[in-house]
Amino acid sequence: MHSIPANVIELCQALVRIPSVNPDGDPGTTQTGEKACAEFIGEFLRASGAQVSFDEIEPGRPNVIGRFPSEPLPDGKPSPNITGIMVWPSSVSPPI
Q1: CA Rg, the chain, in Å?
Q2: pLDDT for the residue 95
Q3: Could you tell me which residue, 19 or 43, shows the higher pLDDT?
Q4: How far is the C-alpha of 22 from the C-alpha of 47, rounded, in Å?
Q5: Which string of DSSP letters, residue by residue, matches 16-53?
Q6: What is the C-alpha to C-alpha distance for residues 72 and 94, in angstroms, rounded to an integer?
Q7: How far is CA 16 from CA 4, 19, 77, 84, 87, in A?
């Protein structure tokens, strides 16, 4: 990461520019998986003072874990996360 995004708009723009296509089905590109996006988020979190680790649940699809030094949050507080989104062909109904 060359510099920390100055605001949430720059952060979102940077994230959208990173290819992170779901590899299931016919993605139409070889740039699949969330690895590049997760690495960017990890760098952003490190630059922001977090301790970062990765948990690769499938090849090229890691979870990012960022921990900021602080007191534990009270139960029920939300934590940020990124989630892969399944894309279903129009001829197939998603499982519910």
Answers
A1: 16
A2: 54
A3: 43
A4: 27
A5: HHS--B--SS--SSS-BSSHHHHHHHHHHHHHTT-EEE
A6: 37
A7: 15, 8, 27, 13, 17
